[in-house]
Every structure is written in C-alpha cells, then in structure tokens.
Amino acid sequence: MNFMESFYTALEGIWANKMRSALTMLGIIIGITSVIAVTALGEGGQKAINDEMEKFGQNTFNVFINWETKEKIESDDLTIDDAAVLGRISPAIEYIVPYSGTTIELKGPKKEERANLTATTADYFNIQKRMKVTKGRLFSDTDDKEQRAVVVLEDKLGEKLFGQMNPIGQRVRWGNNSLVVIGTYSEEKFKFDMGQETFGAVVPIQYYNSLLEEPSIHSFMGTAVDKASVNSAMQQAKQYLTRKHQKNDHYMVRSMQESVDQFNQLTGTLTLIFSIIAGISLVVGGVGVMNIMLVSVTERTREIGIRKALGARRSDILIQFLIESIIVCLIGGLVGVLCGLGIAALISHFANLPPLLSWNSVFIAFGFSSAIGIFFGLYPANKAAKLDPIEALRYE
Amino acid sequence: MLQVEGLTKSYKTGDSTLPILKGVSLLVEQGEFVAIMGPSGSGKSTFMNMLGCLDRPDTGSYILDGIEVSSLNDKQLAYVRNQKIGFVFQSFNLLARSTSLHNVELPMMYANVSRSERRNRATEALKRVGLGERMHHKPTQLSGGQKQRVAIARALVNRPAILLADEPTGNLDSRSGVEIMSIFQELHAQGVTIILVTHEMDIAQHAERIVTFKDGIIIRDERVEERVFSTPNDEVIVT
Ligand SMILES: Nc1ncnc2c1ncn2[C@@H]1O[C@H](COP(=O)(O)OP(=O)(O)OP(=O)(O)O)[C@@H](O)[C@H]1O
Ligand SMILES: [Mg+2]
C-alpha cells in the first residue's frame, strides 16, 4: 500500500473515533502550548530588553568603587575633576559625568512630593538620550561652576508641585534650601519600570556638594564614542583612576551591555527550566497517546485480522497505525502552537512586552510532536503489525 | 493446482497438546469445485485456515499454484493471501465502517492497484454478484446474504487462483444460501477453483466432489452423483 493510501486509512481511523482522538490530542496540546508560551515569552522578554537597550545607551557604562576592595574607601575616591580629565584625555570616551543620587522631599506651592534627586554635570543630558526638554532649559556648565541653586524637574513632578501653574522661574524648597526651577523634561521610561511613583529632579553637582559636609561622588556615568569602544573606554577610565589615586583594585567598571548579557543569561536559564517542565507535560501527553493507541489496537484487532487476511503486510499495518499517531500528535502540535502563541500574546499584552513569534520554538514544537508521535506510536503500531492473522480474526 | 501432503497441526491447551489435523493429504485440480464436510470439531476450519495461509501447519507440505507455501516468510505469505487466495468467512468479516465498494477495493489497495482501476474492478465485481445498487451501503445497511456477496466480490477482485469458503451459508437463511451457491456455481462455470466447507448436504451437492473429515483425517473423498444446480432466480434444478 502506498503512502497516500495509508494516510487516508489513518485519517479514516482518526475520524471514526473523533472524541477519543480529540482527547488524545489534548495531552499533546497542553504540552506544546506550555512549551510555546514559555519560550515565546522568554524570547519576547529578551528581545524587548535588547531593543530598549539599542535605543538608549548601548554605549553607556558606569564606574564605581569596588565594594570588595581591601583598600580604604575615602570620600574623594571619585572626584568631579577626575571625570573632567577623563573626558578630555580618553579618546574612547565621548562623555563622562560624576553622578550622585538620593531621594528627597521637594516642597512646591501645591504640595510636598518625594523625588529622585540626581546631582551631576551638564553633560548628563547628553548621555541620557531618553530625556527631552519640555519647558525652559537644562542647566549649563556655568550653572554648575557657579554652584547655582537651580533644578530641572521631570514634567510630572512639576505638575504635582505646581499644578496648572508654569513652574519655570518658580521656587521649590528642599529642607532649608530654595531652588529655582529652570526647566522641565520628559523621560521615556524603560518599558519595564512599571508604575513608578517617584519622579526625577536634576541639580548641578557642585551646588549639591556645596550643601554637604563631606561630599562624595557615587559613581561616574559615561558613554563611549561607539559600540566597539565601550571596552577600551572602560579600561581607560579604570586605569586612569587607579594610577591617579595610587590604588590597586579600587575601581569597578560595568557596561550596560554586560548587565543586559547577564539578564539574558538569567532569562535564558529560566526559559530553559520552564521549557523542561513544560516538556515533561509533553512526555506525559505522549504516554497518553501510547495508551490510547494501545486501546485502539486492541479494539481494532479484528480489523487488523481482516486486513492481514486480505494481504496487508506487517509494514502496511505498522505504517497505518504510526501515521495515525503522528497525525494525532501533529494536529495536537498545531493547536498547541496556536494556543501557546495566543497565551503568549495575551500575557505580553498585559505585561506590556512586545509579542514575539518565535519560529524556532514553532519548528521545535512540530519536530517534537512528530517525534512523540513516532516514539509513542511505534510500540502500539508494532504490536498491531505483529498480530497473528488467525488469532486476530478470532478475536471477539 | 493445490497439493497438500501429510499436513498436521496440534494446539497446546495447558500442558497437553491436542492433535487436530493428523496427516491430511489432498489434491485439487484447476477448476474443481470441492465441498468439505464432517462433524463439528473434526478440523475443517483448521484445515481451511492452513489453505488460506492464515495459519501455519506443524508439518507437511502445501503447494499452491506451484509455490511451496510452508517455506514462505511473512511478507511472502501476505503476497500469497493477496494474490492467490480469496477467502470467504462464515461471519463475513467486512470492515464495518466502510462501504461495500471500499471493502471490495481493500485487497487491491494492498496490491498497489491504481485508484481508478480499483474503482472500476470493484464496481465490476459488485455487479457480478448482483450488488450494483448497493455499492455505497455500509455492512449494517445490508442483509446477511448481501454481506456475503460483498465478501465474495472482495475475495474475487484480485483474480485469485483459488476461492476458499468456510461455511459461507452458515449464517444465512436457506433462500440466501441458495443464492450464494448459485453465485459459486456461476464462478465455477467461469473456471474459478473453489473449496467450500459446509454442514448441509444440499449445499455440498452443489459441488462436484465431497471430501469428508473426521477426527483430523479425511475419511471419504467421492464425486457427487446427484448434483444440485441453483440459478440466481432461485430455481433449484436437480439432475
Ligand atoms: N486456537 C485453538 N486453540 C485450541 N484448540 C483449538 C483452537 N482452534 C481450534 N481448536 C480445536 O480444534 C478442533 C477443530 O476445530 P475446527 O474449528 O477446525 O473444527 P471444525 O471442523 O471447523 O468444526 P465446526 O464444524 O464446528 O466449524 C476443535 O476441537 C477446537 O476446539
Ligand atoms: Mg469450522
């Protein structure tokens, strides 16, 4: 019997037991659905992070004090001058700024609000490409050098502090200090900072330091001239600081790329673990297929006997049942892929991730379901093929 | 045509082996019409199953159409069943879910006959047994006699060397039985070799020769003196 005939015969077998075939498929559907949903979400998440990162600051890096150093940590380990010098002498570095951050209470005419305060230099706005001026202006190098008490507010913070009033030129109070609002900005958030409540305020770092008893700078934030130069930019920063401050392992550098890589590694591992768990349900589905196929073979013993009496070879019977189990698994696989992508789309819609159709996982799922069809169908099919014709015919 | 020599078969039940066929020898020539009779349990069906290559003998030789069948492997046996043998069962053994046409096409599917030729030959075979009007009926929609006629059409459709029938009229009323026998006689007249098992003398008398089994051996083998002839329209002619 040729392949097409076996195929039709198998389809007839499936159609004759619609309910049972559907239930058999269910196991495969659940397995494939979970595999597809998990991998699609995993890959979707990774892609989203990487896209964000492409948009904003794939060339950025940070310089910190190495917290594990044995050397004494002092407040002048990172200075404003260090950043300025590095920016001048290092060819790989495009911008580099000192950076300190803290949470403060700002008081406007309307009310008092919590704010994320960033103290830095003017170049900060060149590094943070996500920030756009909406009103007024950003502060300048002069504002910084003169230690002017000025602040640039995130526009939402401005609305909260001033209501409908134009905040530009108005004053806000931070403890005993009074600052002039010179501008507002909007910031395109990372897609993953969900529902953040506190908004930003940026002040010149020289002014900020002038308020402190013992000013110290948390870190530097920098960008390399291009993507390829990120590593040399970081090395140059680290070498310069180490030499300048006569230290050994005092400084630590880290690029955005490294953080993203680490995240990818983590999500990759998580995806793998969930896929394995989902894969187990696929195997359970496969055992279900085998179980039903065995029942089917027993139930159709007489049919097998008749076919053999009419000249069916072992291979004809084997192929008929094998195709049946493969078709069941493939249909289950197809439905599973659709369900899985549907679930992934639904979750990514609510989690604000871009949905991602992962062709890889679709092919793998189809490969898997046919493999399961063959693997778990082979034993029942072989059992059917080996039946003795006369005993099969006598079977009641 | 068909030559059996010293065929034996025994069945194991528990720890005792029960001999069923104790050395059966039989020669059937091309175009013969043989009836096998004998008491219940004498081994007739067992013998027919050997002839139909559905079961293997313990010892003895079986030559069918020049082929020594006892030396064949599984695949070759399937080929012999498909091409050389047409088997008609007492219980019809039709595929319950399939139409008459599909049932008759089945042996040709295993012979890789093309779709259109299959359709033509199956239609022709069904017409030959008078079922041209019942081609798209399923077995549940057919009477016993009609089912058996589908089974005969199916047995003939690959033009086998021999037609084997184990009590083909056993499940039928006498009128349908006579109809079936008229078909057998017509086939015989066209040159088909037929071996048929029956309990009823008037059925057996449709054949040319009666072989009688008892306790696993042949005790009698004689020509039929008073043959009965049936025609499709149910008249029984005795000569
Ligand atoms: N698979 C089997 N296992 C054990 N014994 C069997 C088996 N098949 C047949 N027999 C025995 O072989 C004997 C002959 O059986 P067989 O079916 O050949 O008889 P028969 O002549 O066709 O009888 P009937 O006229 O009733 O159909 C019986 O006693 C039966 O019990
Ligand atoms: Mg019998």
From TrEMBL, chain A:
It holds the Pfam family FtsX. The chain crosses the membrane at residues 21-42, 272-297, 318-351, 357-379. Its main location: membrane. Residues 21-239 form the MacB-like periplasmic core domain. Keywords: Cell membrane, Membrane, Transmembrane, Transmembrane helix. It is a multi-pass membrane protein. One of its GO terms (molecular function) is transmembrane transporter activity. Residues 276-389 form the ABC3 transporter permease C-terminal domain. It comes from the Bacteria. One of its GO terms (cellular component) is plasma membrane. The keyword Transmembrane helix applies. It is found in: Cell membrane. InterPro entries: ABC3_permease_C, MacB_PCD, Macrolide_Exporter_MacB. Belongs to the ABC-4 integral membrane protein family. PANTHER family: ABC TRANSPORTER PERMEASE YTRF, MEMBRANE COMPONENT OF TRANSPORTER-RELATED. This is ABC transporter permease. It comes from Brevibacillus parabrevis.
UniProtKB/TrEMBL annotation, chain B:
The keyword Repressor does not apply. Keywords: ATP-binding, Nucleotide-binding, Transport. GO terms for molecular function: ATP binding; ATP hydrolysis activity; transmembrane transporter activity. GO terms for cellular component: membrane protein complex; plasma membrane. Residues 2-239 form the ABC transporter domain. The keyword Transport applies. This is Macrolide ABC transporter ATP-binding protein.
